[in-house]
Design brief:
Layout lengths: L3 H29 L24 H33 L7 H24 L4 H26 L8 H27 L15 H26 L3 H26 L4 H25 L9 H11 L1
Helix pairs in contact: 1-2, 1-4, 1-8, 2-3, 3-4, 4-5, 4-8, 5-6, 5-8, 6-7, 7-8
């Protein structure tokens, strides 16, 4: 039977994952509504005030609301770390879990700083892209937190499939990075006066699409190799579904000239794809080592009976 503290910890880990996905969506809303400089400075919202004022209008409210979410993420991260540390000392979760939870907290702080720098640099597209990319690694870390809170066992993947998983994970990160570059070349800059990265939107989109097709091919190969194992097959099917949906939305947004609603859907898809990619990698790839104490191992054996 799962102890109440570990049930709470699992809820906190899931909340941390969801919150770090949601802030990507709200960040996209800031950019797509032209509210990136709704708060024209940082850490204050405007000179002399840390909060948005009515005179700043809807853009100030949207940007300030996104900033406020950082405090929600930080609060969840702190609670997760405190409880994970206690549960790890009791041997009920892996010893790495409080370390990962603490790293997520630091990442949220780093994310806020990078976001502030992007405002101070008038939404430089490369800094804005870095702002997005930090969220990718926060989502991956939060998937690990969920696994540790649930003590999710790894799948028994054969060596060639484990190696393919590593390749798919690496290419998946490249695909997301290329998508960030496409965004930096596109028209939605977050503010009418913000610069773009001066790359061709057409060619960056094509290179991004080619990388997605390569990822799809490797995912289909992985699914074929995993077909005889029910658990592995479901892991690969989950990733494939996320890729197909994200690819469909990507093509729709490209050929309909980037309507706001479709672009937001694509950002939602990016976070879902990232979570699915991390889920597969952690369970079927080499993944990070999981060190357990004697009491943790004993607890796992007991729960498995």
């Amino acid at each position: 039977m799962t102890s109440p503290p570990r049930t709470t910890l699992r809820g906190l880990a899931i909340a941390s994952l969801v919150a770090n996905m949601v802030i990507v969506w709200t960040g996209a809303l800031v950019r797509l509504t032209g509210s990136g400089l709704g708060c024209p400075t940082w850490p204050q919202c405007e000179p002399g005030s840390f909060v948005a004022t009515p005179e700043m209008g809807i853009h100030g409210a949207i940007e300030f609301g996104n900033r406020l979410l950082t405090f929600v993420l930080a609060g969840i991260a702190l609670s997760t770390w405190l409880l994970a540390r206690r549960e790890a000392r009791a041997g009920r979760v892996p010893e790495r879990m409080p370390v990962v939870a603490f790293a997520v907290g630091l990442g949220i702080i780093a994310q806020a700083v990078v976001g502030g720098i992007s405002v101070l640099l008038q939404l430089n597209p490369w800094i804005v892209g870095l702002h997005m990319f930090v969220s990718v690694f926060l989502i991956l870390a939060c998937v690990l937190l969920v696994h540790d809170a649930q003590r999710t066992p790894r799948a028994s993947a054969p060596l060639r499939l484990a190696r393919l998983t590593e390749v798919v994970f690496a290419l998946g990160i490249v695909v997301v990075a290329l998508g960030v570059v496409v965004t930096g070349a596109g028209p939605h800059a977050g503010d009418g006066g913000a610069a773009r990265n001066d790359l061709s939107t057409e060619w960056t989109a094509k290179v991004h699409a080619w990388s997605v097709w390569g990822l799809l091919a490797l995912t289909l190969l992985g699914l074929l190799w995993a077909w005889s194992d029910t658990r592995l097959r479901r892991l690969w099917q989950g990733l494939l579904a996320a890729e197909l949906l994200q690819g469909l939305i990507g093509y729709v947004q490209y050929f309909t000239h980037l309507p706001v609603g479709v672009v937001i859907a694509h950002m939602v898809g990016t976070t879902v794809f990232t979570a699915a990619l991390g889920h597969l990698w952690l369970l079927a790839g080499a993944g990070p080592p999981q060190k357990t104490s004697g009491s943790t191992a004993a607890a796992m054996k007991t729960s498995a009976r």
